[in-house]
Amino acid sequence: MPNILSQLSLIFYKMIRKVSEIFKEKEHTYSFELFPPKTEKGYEKLLHTLTELCEFNPDFISCTYGAGGGSRDKTFDIVQLIQEKHNIPGVAHLTCICHTKEEIKNILENIKNRNICNVLALRGDPPQDNPDWVPGDNNFRYSSELCASIHKDFSDYFGIGVAGFPEGHILCPDLEQDARYLKIKIDNGADYVMTQLFFDNQLYFDYVERLRKIGVTARVIPGILPITNYKNLVKFCQLCGASISDEVKTIFEPIQDDLERTLEEGIQFSIRQCKGLLDGGAPGLHFYSLNKISPVDVILQNVRR
Ligand SMILES: Cc1cc2nc3c(=O)[nH]c(=O)nc-3n(C[C@H](O)[C@H](O)[C@H](O)COP(=O)(O)OP(=O)(O)OC[C@H]3O[C@@H](n4cnc5c(N)ncnc54)[C@H](O)[C@@H]3O)c2cc1C
Is any ligand 1 atom within 6 A of the Cβ of residue 183? Predict the structure, then answer.
């Protein structure tokens, strides 16, 4: 009986742990990002993928919010499922764009009631059907304001992650200014930074150095996107402002119509990138899994320490 009780308490403990608490125990964390599928069939498929991903015993799994037009409540359903079915801490992304301050507070209450205690606090981007949306007095303008509000209304209940951009946010090419904006998020209560994808590790190391110079000591977890389709990658990078390094162009442009070779080269590239990051001191890896087990399974098996 005491055994069962201690197992139950371990499960409960694991469920409600904040990412920042996991950092205290682990030098490196390995995690995945999912997105809520738009269709029932996609959701069924995700449930299967999730089981496979959880076999890798990730430190946490995050789920995007609103991006790509998916249903917003689905984010929290998925994070709750990750925690309750798989006993893995879940991180709910939350964007404040197009929400009033009161709505955000209600959403956070809802998340809390679901026993979710990790959020990635984001501003988000104006939706396609409302591209000219501008914040008023009753909205948060920046993620830093969302961080401050989470902290004010919920004290230390939530562990807060924020987005970071090694090449600067697409609307803020001034790298020093971008770093100062990031620091405001940390000063307003964020615990760690999750980066935008990048392909040149030096961009990440320079970014971390910029942040350290201005006093940001929080962990900066690199976001890794394995390359599986070069044409799609080019389109995506144009949208999010990430650059495609010369090395990536040289490897993948000539084979862009051969998806099998792209996958093989993509795996080898990611393995090299991840090893280089860990060798250089990165505190873990966050994989943009795109709701698929392949190729993150192979990559993780080769790089995990
Ligand atoms: C790891 C990661 C996960 C993401 N997940 C999602 C998701 O789930 N859903 C989704 O819709 N999008 C997601 N995004 C995309 C993100 O919402 C967009 O990149 C968005 O444009 C910026 O969000 P942010 O939280 O960094 O915004 P902010 O930090 O608010 O920055 C937005 C812009 O305002 C500028 N800025 C910040 N503070 C100030 C200030 N005080 N004064 C003037 N300017 C300022 C910044 O330089 C930047 O240009 C994610 C991005 C990353 C890197």
Answer: no
176 is catalytic: no
13 pLDDT above the threshold of 90? no
Q: Is the shortest distance between the CB of 172 and ligand 1 below 6 Å?
A: yes
Domain boundaries, the chain: 2-12+29-303
Instruction: Give the residue with greater pLDDT, 293 vs 12.
Output: 293
Give which of 269, 284, 145, 275 is closest to 208, Cα–Cα. 284
122 lines ligand 1 (CB under 6 A): yes
Q: Which class would CATH give 2-12+29-303? A: alpha beta
Give 34: exposed, middle or buried? Use CB within 10 Å, 0-12, 13-18, 19+.
buried
The closest-lying atom of ligand 1 relative to the alpha carbon of residue 177 is 47
- Neighbouring CB atoms inside 10 A of 82's CB total 27
**pTM, 2 dp:** 0.95
Q: What is the mean pLDDT of the chain?
A: 94
CA of 255 to the centre of ligand 1 (A): 33
Q: How far is CA 206 from CA 2, 9, 21, 74, 212, in A?
A: 50, 42, 26, 36, 10
Question: How far apart, in whole angstroms, are the C-alpha atoms of residue 263 and residue 269?
Answer: 10
Ligand 1 in reach of 36 Cβ (< 6 A): no
Pairing, β 159-164 against β 118-122: parallel
